[in-house]
Amino acid sequence: SREFKKADTVITFPNGVTIGGPEIQVMAGPCAVESEEQLLYVAERVKKAGAKILRGGAFKPRTSPYTFQGLGEEGLVHLSKAREKTGLLVITELMDPRDLPAMMEHTDIIQIGARNMQNFRLLFDVGEVNKPVLLKRGLSATIKEFLMAAEYIASRGNQEIILCERGIRTFETMTRNTLDLNAVPVLKSLTHLPVLVDPSHGTGRWDLVTPMARAGVAAGCDALMVEVHNNPEQAFSDGEESLKPDKFDRLMEEVRKVASAV
Ligand code: PEP
Ligand code: MN
Asked: How many domains does the chain have?
């Protein structure tokens, strides 16, 4: 909390990229790593647009067990390769502590997904490693519960935590979730941790991603996470909320404009 630490936490990576510093960082890439070619293509495009961090799920927490579950360790290897080729930092989701050693090798930021926000054993485990963690807000979690989940990580020693607002369940059905932008200034006032907005899962609709990315930046977030796919119609997961690379170029331009105004 702010009471414990007044100054903002700034996470600094060995290549000089910071999260929580003056620059808005954008993590972009496909929902799921689908193949080496797909990932490399999207990685090059998001890099060209100005993103410094590549996202892509290797272990996918799907609603149905009969849908694509991710490439697993093979996906992690593709991420490593994309990191090597592009110099981008890499973030991917951890669902099972047994995959933690492989994650330590292949990724720069560990993502804890919304569905695991209160998987306390998993939180303790990532609290004990020396790698930044992106913690996503649970589907129906209050901000208090979200912060207590972050405490599970911090209490084991790892203070490099990024808080992610990714939309919550409400009665509204026009969007997949309701992006709770109130959470941004609330979190910024209560904690010293960097705050990230995910307008892709927050809306579930590609046509709403850019406006809500702009809104997130205007509300004071430190970073964004955006799903980008080379061919959203054929995506293995979350195609309906994924931007084509050309649309992502425009998002980046618009975000830069808002960032320079706030
Ligand atoms: C994701 O980032 O692809 C994801 C599964 O997100 P969430 O945990 O927010 O649903
Ligand atoms: Mn997704």
From this structure: 1
